[in-house]
Write a structure and sequence with these properties.
The chain has 2 domains: about 5-215, Spore Coat Polysaccharide Biosynthesis Protein SpsA, Chain A; about 215-289, no CATH class. Helix content is about 40%, strand content about 15%. The protein has 11 helices and 10 strands. It has a 7-stranded mixed beta sheet with strand order 3-2-1-4-8-6-9, with helices on both faces. It has a 3-stranded mixed beta sheet with strand order 5-10-7. The longest helix is centred in the last third of the chain and has 20 residues, at about 215-235.
Length: about 290
């Protein structure tokens, strides 16, 4: 089996069908749908293919997409791994682009994504940060940013054997569960490369069910904890320039949830020995230019 495509799914059935339709019906592809809905799909509603192997699993609905992806990883058999969110799609030429790398030994191949606003069909903006990152790597051959700042698992082709050898899994968190997974993969990968071929379209807009568009007190603090973990990881592994700028997140805690919540962030930062003012000088210099 050449490919395992892991799709975490929750309550967006029509979009799931669209996502599955974007995966070619080939006998070298395994599709793993992991349902973390409160009311899971019945087996009669699980999408089917005539050639591709479709496996269906359920995961704990209280544990989020990270847990669902881990279930997929535990059952994947393909040489290469791909992650597809249920509200996103592969492009028509995606697997032709992936096939080029089947005979290579790269642990990760990065691709520039696109994005679309579901309500209008117009091109979105959610992809730009990551597309620009891949373009920068292709022009400079500097791997640091794609290894340590490309956090979504999508629009990448992974060699499954290296993820299993390193025992890398997603954090079981309601938000930001992919950050440390991608960071650990980027750090552990022996060889990486990139392609200019767009293979993945991210959805955004009113119909987007992504947790990245939501704000709550609990989720904001979880995101901050993950940001601190990222800060410490890159610092400890010799990549301090890749650290998150934490101050804006602390300011947002004060702004949206008050003094007590803001000082909670400050105390957490002190306990973890991170500098919330890192990057302030660079940000100030940019604004004054």
């Amino acid at each position: 089996m050449n490919y395992s495509v892991i799709i975490p799914y929750r309550d967006t059935y029509e979009l799931l069908l669209r996502a599955c339709d974007s995966v070619p019906d080939r006998d070298d592809i395994q599709i793993l749908i992991v349902d973390n809905s409160v009311v899971p799909l019945t087996h009669e509603r699980v999408p089917v293919k005539s050639a591709a192997r479709v496996d269906f699993f359920c995961s704990d609905p209280t544990k989020g997409a990270g847990c669902a992806r881990n279930v997929g990883l535990d059952h994947a058999v393909g040489d290469r791994l791909l992650f597809l969110d249920a509200d996103d799609v592969f492009t028509d030429t995606a697997f032709a682009a992936f096939d080029v790398f089947l005979s290579t030994d790269y642990d990760i191949v990065f691709f520039p994504p696109a994005s679309v606003v579901l309500s209008s069909g117009q091109s979105g903006t959610r992809h730009r940060y990551y597309a620009d990152m891949v373009d920068e790597y292709l022009s400079t051959c500097d791997e640091e940013r794609v290894r340590y700042r490309y956090f979504p698992p999508w629009s990448k082709l992974f060699r499954r054997s290296f993820i299993e050898a390193e025992r890398i899994r997603f954090d079981v968190l309601p938000v930001s569960n992919d950050v440390m997974f991608s960071l650990r993969c980027g750090h552990a990968a022996r060889t990486v490369t990139a392609s200019s071929q767009v293979v993945y379209t991210v959805s955004e807009g009113e119909c987007n069910n992504s947790l990245t568009t939501r704000r709550s007190r609990a989720n904001m603090f979880i995101r901050y904890q993950v940001a601190v973990a990222q800060y410490r990881f890159v610092s400890e592994h010799g990549h301090p320039k890749m650290r998150f700028h934490l101050l804006s997140k602390v300011v947002d805690a004060f702004r949206f949830f008050g003094i007590r919540e803001g000082f909670k962030y400050v105390r957490y930062s002190l306990t973890n020995r991170v500098n919330i003012f890192y990057g302030l000088l660079q940000m100030t210099n940019k604004k004054t230019r």
